[in-house]
Design a protein that fits this description.
Number of helices: 4
Oligomer: single chain
Order of helices and strands: HHEEEHEEEEEEHEEEEEEE
Shape: globular
Largest sheet: 16 strands, mixed
Length: about 300
């Protein structure tokens, strides 16, 4: 369906959705120990990407039959250093567009640093929303089988949160961006429909209980001449920002060796946010999940 950037009836709902923490959580949606314990939290995703990967997405706000273009996002990963040691730098950039850009401008950035073995070390989210600035800084540490996250939230004028979140022993805990890499690391060949993969997302003072639930293979159509073969997952989120906890969101991962998100859909209290794959470069493998259909 074509975007409608001028329909006056969706303006109020669109503004509300932009203010919601839920829309930022899935921009993604759209659109993640000592050495003896480290393997429990490391994300085995290295075979799915190569440094230099960059993926572009488009975000839409959907209300009934109307779909309005809402923003652009990119995910990239490269080699870097963190506190003097080799690391991977994983970044999300997001900006609003269309009607939302006119009524509630947003510029969000999330920067994550991982060890070479993909153990999450640090996440920094910087928000600029209608000239309101806020930073969420998460520093992860691992001790005795438990994952800790020092959570610091501040604005240019004051500190709003300064606390430590502690996950129970054996529980995976990531920031919201690191959870996307965890999903990319899952081994589909050993899954069956209904299998669930629980984890927690550290956000501010909260550890949001979340799980990916496998639903099998599915085709995602983009117009009449393009489709993607995907693996479909439901995302169960236990948070008041969503209309329901079970299947609060859905994500479709390209069914090839890259495992990149192709589509994300998050239900909001009003409407839904939808994220679609647009383009990419530097992928480790050919994007064989993409199927172009010749016009008759």
């Amino acid at each position: 369906m074509k975007a409608n950037n001028h329909h006056p009836e969706i303006t109020a709902a669109t503004i509300w959705a932009c203010r919601s923490n839920a829309i930022r959580l899935w921009l993604v949606l759209l659109f993640l120990l000592p050495v003896i314990y480290a393997q429990a939290q490391e994300i085995p995703v290295r075979r799915q990407f190569t440094p230099g990967e960059s993926v572009q997405y488009e975000l839409y706000f959907k209300w009934g039959l109307l779909m309005s273009r809402a923003g652009h996002a990119s995910l990239s990963i490269r080699e870097a250093e963190y506190e003097g040691s080799p690391a991977f730098h994983y970044r999300l950039l997001f900006r609003t567009s269309g009607i939302i850009e006119k009524v509630y401008k947003m510029r969000d950035t999330i920067d994550c640093h991982f060890t070479p073995d993909m153990l999450l070390l640090q996440s920094e989210k910087r928000v600029n929303e209608n000239n309101y600035y806020q930073t969420d800084d998460l520093r992860f540490s691992y001790n005795g089988g438990k994952t800790n996250a020092r959570s610091l939230r501040y604005t240019p004028t004051r500190t709003k949160i300064d606390t430590t979140l502690v996950a129970e022993e054996g529980t995976r805990m990531f920031d919201m961006l690191g959870a996307t890499l965890y999903l990319r690391s899952l081994n589909w060949e050993k899954m069956k429909a209904g299998d669930s993969f629980p984890f927690e997302v550290a956000i501010g003072r909260d550890r949001v209980k979340t799980s990916f639930r496998y639903a099998g293979q599915q085709i995602v159509k983009r117009g009449e001449t393009l489709k993607y073969r995907t693996r479909h997952f439901y995302i169960d989120i236990y948070d008041d920002a969503f209309t329901q906890s079970k299947a609060a969101a859905e994500i479709w991962i390209g069914d090839d060796e890259n495992h990149i998100p192709i589509k994300i859909r998050a239900k909001l209290k009003i409407g839904a946010a939808e994220v679609y794959y647009k383009d990419s470069e530097g992928l480790r493998y050919p994007l064989t999940s993409r199927v172009e259909i010749k016009k008759r």
